[in-house]
Every structure is written in C-alpha cells, then in structure tokens.
Amino acid sequence: MKKTFFFLLILALTSCAKQNCPNGVPAKMKNLTGFDGCAWVLELKDGTRLEPINLNEFNVSMVEGKKIVVTYEDFPAASICMVGKIVKITSVCE
Questions:
Q1: Number of domains present in the structure of the chain
Q2: Percent of the residues in the chain that have a pLDDT greater than 90, as a whole number
C-alpha cells in the first residue's frame, strides 16, 4: 500500500511539473563562471546559448550538464560574457 501511494505521489508531482512548461524548450546548463563576466548559461539543442538574467529566482539546482526545460523572453541588455542572447526566464521545469 505504501509503495502504491509513493508511486502515485511521484507521478502526480512529475505530471504537475511538466504542465508548468508546455511551450518550453529543452536546454542544458553550462557553468561558465571561470570566464570573465560569465555565470550559468543555458545551451539549446542547436548549440544556441542563452544568458539568463534571473535564473537564481527559480528553485533549480545548478549542476553542469543538467537538462531542463525553460520558457523565456528576450531581454534588451548588454553582456560582459558575450556568449549568447540575454533572456529573462519565465519558467523552469526539471
């Protein structure tokens, strides 16, 4: 009985998390903090890199190579890092 309840709880939590990013794009987390002005960036499947200005606002563990799904909007700003497009993350799903 406990195993069934635990399985259903995990299934419910997982399905809820997926609904938060219905139009999201898959991305991989990259740690570029060793480079001047850089921090964590997101790399899309086509190799495009995104420099999020607000990734720390989301409860996501920062792990090199971690695959996540994000929705974002362009953010008009300049970057010291200059490895990708500056974006504001609107949702993150792990």
A1: 1
A2: 70
Q: CA 63 to CA 44: how far, in whole Å? A: 16
Question: With the C-alpha atoms ordered 34, 64, 28, 87, is the resulting torsion angle positive or negative?
Answer: negative
The domain spanning residue 32 has which CATH number?
A: 2.40.50.500
CA distance 55 to 71: 11
Alpha-carbon gap, residue 63 to 53, rounded angstroms: 17
Structure tokens at 67: 């695959």
Dump pLDDT digits (tens) for 35-71: 888 999 999 999 999 999 999 999 999 999 999 999 9
pTM (two decimals): 0.75
- Write down the pLDDT at residue 76: 95
**What phi, psi does 41 have (nearest 5°)?**
-125, 165
